[in-house]
Amino acid sequence: MSQPKAVVLVSGGMDSATAAAEAKSRGYDLYFLHTSYGQRTEGKEYECARQLAEEFDAADFLHIETSHLAQIGASALTDEGIDVADADLDSEEIPDTYVPFRNANLLSMAVSYAEANECAAVFIGAHSEDFAGYPDCRPEFFEAFQAVADVGTKPDTHISLEAPFVEWTKTEIAAHGVSLDVPFEHTWSCYKEDAPACGVCDSCAIRLRAFEDVGVRDPIEYAERPSYRT
């Protein structure tokens, strides 16, 4: 029997790379979907996603360029007029880096891609520290989107939406990725820069703290490498 197939939403970051490793460990052939939507570091993210596709021997790599999220704006990731703030890991506000309803857009493309290729699952690397700030990373969002996928695809289509780390911390993802030999040197998390990573935005801070907690040096280059351990 042939192996089951899964679409993995691969941003080029450490969470989606670990989600790809998790899907592979479960026996899936991987179909990588990467999107460029006008984010500040889209060139670096694309480079990392392509490298990860090679590292994981992906059966297919689909890169979709969209402009509508950048045209809609209202996010520091897509609007040069909005500065990416330095890290504030104690804030409970929705950050300026939130891209309005982005995951619904990405998952819609992923489900289309999965149905067209008879894939059994779609994997996304969202986790608990995401949904603390991003409403479209909450467990109830993924449960609702599963219902959308069930209703909106053909009757004989069955696609499982997998967010395996949705209740995990970044530190737990880093530890799991290390155990699965994820090539973290080919991942990118920085919101501000293509290279080197800034080390001071929220995304860099959460990533650096996770690697510190695991006791492994983050293999990518940083302009600054502060300690964020409490």
Written description of the protein model:
This protein is α/β, with parallel strands linked by helices and 230 residues long. The chain has one domain (5-182): Rossmann fold (3-Layer(aba) Sandwich). 38% of the residues lie in helices and 11% in strands. The protein is built from eight helices and five strands. The chain has a five-stranded parallel beta sheet, with helices on both faces. Strand 2, helix 2 (42-55) and strand 3 form a beta-alpha-beta unit. Helix 1 (14-25) crosses helix 7 (170-179) and helix 7 crosses helix 8 (202-214). The model has no long low-confidence stretch (mean pLDDT 94).
In helices, the fraction of residues equals: 25-40%
Biggest sheet record = 5 strands, parallel
How would you classify the helix and strand content by structural class? Answer: alpha/beta
Poorly predicted runs: none
The geometry reads as globular
Name the assembly state.
single chain
Beta content: 5-15%
Q: What is the fold named in CATH at topology level? A: Rossmann fold
Q: What is the number of beta strands?
A: 5
CATH architecture: 3-Layer(aba) Sandwich
Q: How far apart are the first and last residues' alpha carbons, in Å?
A: 50 Å
The Rg value, from CA coordinates, equals: 17 Å
**Main sheet: which strands, in order across?**
3-2-1-4-5
The whole-number mean of residue pLDDT values reads 94
Q: Structurally, how many domains make up the residues?
A: 1
The ordered H/E elements are: EHEHEHHEHHEHH
